[in-house]
Design brief:
The protein is mostly helical. 85% of the residues lie in helices and 0% in strands. It has 13 helices and no strands. Helix 3 packs parallel to helix 6 and helix 10 runs antiparallel to helix 12.
Amino acid sequence: MIAIETGMQDLKRMALRGGLAKLFGQVGNLSLRFGFMIVVARLLQPADFGLVAMVTVVTGVLELFSSAGLSMATVQRSTINNEQISTLFWINILVGTMLAALCLLIAPLLVAFYREPRLFWVTAAMGAGFLFNAAGVQHLALLQRQLRYVALAAIEFSCQLASLSIGICIAIAGYGYWALVAAAISLPAIMTVSVWVATAWIPGRLHRNSGVRSLLHFGGTVTLNGVISYMTYNFDKFILGRVWGVTALGQYGVGSQLINIPTSNLNTALGGVMFSALSRLQNDAVRFRSYFLKGYSLNISMTLPVTIFSGVFAEDIIHVVLGPKWADAAAIFRLLAPAVLVFGVINPVGWLLWSSGRHLRSLKSQ
């Protein structure tokens, strides 16, 4: 009994420490992303953002398959061995290679659909990001599973700083939309190198009978859930780019991205820690419920004032962050504020369902 209580106290301490680290880390990341947007919004044109958005609205769907849900499966599993993690690593590599190849196949289709030749090489370049990401999925999951959020927060901040700095340098050099592409694909590359160093884990060979079937089932369900959600929330961008072109999509895309930055960073910070901690408590109903309610209350108390502030001062925020040429994005920014608030209310339900292994119920609720 004493050992159990000690373990729970350790978990509480690690979860609290990890939560604070993630929160401060996300504040740092939020500042970096705002700073990046302030700079590049003045160096680039709305059409540059719209051009890249035409690609990312499609590659965003593919990105949901990049981890195949296997990082969450590694974190959620009560016990997992090295053979299983190594097998999942090689599955992630295979998936990443297939997605990179798929980008090359999709590129001509995007060029034809949007009637925009520049999309071919942008799409091909974005495909490289899937290869970089795949090599670090399981290493990142190991850090999350071990609740090493102090190290993870430091890695995320430094990698974000490096990738955004690369993007700004390329924008200053006058390469236009390639600055956004460079920032996007350099982040997973730098991140993967960093998590390999931090974990010092080297994957073994692929094992056919390692017992990963249940992990693949969990990951597949999580991935399908994410695909349905993503397509529901991003189909408008796909059609908008086709009908109204790069400039309109640029205004809409940047406006929606800006209103989502605070809440998405909060959900990433709090959600990652809560999922890891709740996964460790899935067999302890009392503490599981207590941890979830505390995390949910914290999420709502921080999401509500930020969203209301954003809606009320939309024009001022757009003017300060993006500049005068983005004035049309203010209306979009304000109109999307209530939707972001709703997402803040419903997103924590995912922590509960996934950490307790009720992934099928999560899929059915879509």
